[in-house]
Structures are given as structure tokens and as C-alpha cells.
Amino acid sequence: MELRHLRYFLAVVDHGTTARAAEAALVAQPSLSRQLRRLEAELKLALFDHGGGRLRLTSAGRQFVPIARDLLARAAAAQEAARALGTGQVSRITIAAPVTTIADVIAPFIATTGGHDAMITVQEVLPADAYDALWRGADVAISSAPPPLHLAGGAVARLPVLAYPPPGHPWEERARVGIAELAEQPLLLLTAEHGTRRLFDHAALRAGVRYATAFETSIPQIAQALAAAGRGVAVVSDDPRYGLHPVSVDGTDGPISISLFAGWSASHYAAATIAPLVERLSSYCVDRYGAQAAP
């Protein structure tokens, strides 16, 4: 079945006669009539009642009309998608990132995009699996680890590691705390696969301090929820929740921060669209978190 046969069929349906349909389709009437008969032969259906000198849709023909319209619409969409693939323009980009990055960085950034931008969708992944998501349908991956050498990309932002003391804690009015002082508190920490935890452990090792873990969780929001419940001081890198007050954490070399990186396939058909989008994401982080967020 050829798409032009469907177009001729619908032209007759819409214009009422083969003469007007042929004029609209810019084809000779005898040719259009032959193509209609060929379509009926391929479908093994009588789409029109050919008696009485005027074409009338049969019952099968009436039921085939929406099917033909749907097929042509899908074909047009496929052609548009192919055109976009060929030019590097895309209507949708999927970003793979950990849940905290999605909630605190990607989702607010999406809210700043407009109708002229590619629609951004997200794919939630564990921090260690971000770049593997590029082989599972994601177009861009955001991770606290630099992208492998075979990928394009680079640094996006530097976000502070924050301590969230429980309500009523003496640190509620403070802006900063040293890691040695923080280590004296019961800590609510993320599990080892999180970049925030690895950075904290490295900073504690460099400072020569030991700490007591009150609880470990793989979910940053749970760490803050437990802090809000008075169970200890949460150490995470996400935005404040539950009315908690963020306190920046200083190591021996200054503020502890976690870097965010973006990576994508260097041969991605939409690399020319992805690269400026990632640059906009980086600028958004600086606008939102201040100059210290610049990579």
C-alpha cells in the first residue's frame, strides 16, 4: 500500500467526485481512478460503490476513512522526525540524573524553558549509573563524576555540601560550620554511592577527624526529614526542606562542594542542540545559587 493511494482515497472522500479529487491532488482523473482500484485490490475491500455513475463509500469504506487519516498523520509525523534527525533539531531531550539533581536542578530549570525549546523529560538513575543511561534512551546524563573520555560534555556547576541541623539547634543562625565541629554531632549521612558522602568522607580524612553516624540513607529527603524530627544533623547537597536551615560545611581547603557534570554521545544527532542546552543549565545554576556555583 502506497501513501499516495491513501491520499487519493481521502481526496475523493473530501471532495465528493474523482474529477474534483484529481484536480485537488494534481493528478489526471484516469490515473486517480486506476490508483483507487489498485488500493481496493491490495486491501481486498470494496471502498466505493461504483454503480450509478457516482462513487459512494461502502460500509467498509466508511470504517477505513479514520484508519487512512491516522496512517497519513503517522507518516507525516515520521517524516518530520526524520527531518529533525537529519538537521540535528529535536522536539524532546531526555536527561538522566539522580533524584536530588532532578528535584533541585533539572525540574526548576525545565520551568524556565519555553515553547521554542525542546521539551525536556527526565530519567531517574542512581548516581553511579548516570552515564550508562545514555545507552538506555537518555540523551544527556548528569552526574557528580566527570564523563568518560569517549563522551562529550564537561562541568555544569559546583553545589555546596550542606549541614541541616534540627529545629532549635544552636546552628540555626549560622552560615558556616567546620568539618571538625560537625563531626561532633550525630550525623544523618547518605550511603557510599552518593558523591556527597564520598566528598564528606574525603574531607573528614584530610581533616583527620572521625565522626559518629546516627543513620545512613540512600534518599536525601529522608536525611532531611530525620533532621526535622530531631534525629541528628543531615549532610546532603540538596535544597532545604521541612523548614530546615542550611549551613555550609568547610573542610581544610575551604567550602566543600560537589561538582555536577554533563555527558552525551559525541556523535549524537542533536549534539548541536544539547551543548547550548547544557550551557543554559550551567548559567541557570549560577543565577540560582550564586557565583560560587560556577564550574
UniProtKB/TrEMBL annotation:
Assigned GO CC terms: protein-DNA complex
Keywords: DNA-binding, Transcription, Transcription regulation
Residue ranges annotated for the HTH lysR-type domain, each copy included: 1-58
MF terms (GO), sorted A to Z: DNA binding; DNA-binding transcription factor activity
PROSITE patterns on file: HTH_LYSR (PS50931)
Gene3D superfamilies linked to this entry: 3.40.190.290, Winged helix-like DNA-binding domain superfamily/Winged helix DNA-binding domain
Keyword Lyase among record annotations: no
SUPFAM superfamilies noted in UniProt: Periplasmic binding protein-like II, Winged helix' DNA-binding domain
Family named by the database record: Belongs to the LysR transcriptional regulatory family.
Name listed for the protein in its UniProt record: LysR family transcriptional regulator
Lineage of the organism: Bacteria, Bacillati, Actinomycetota, Actinomycetes, Streptosporangiales
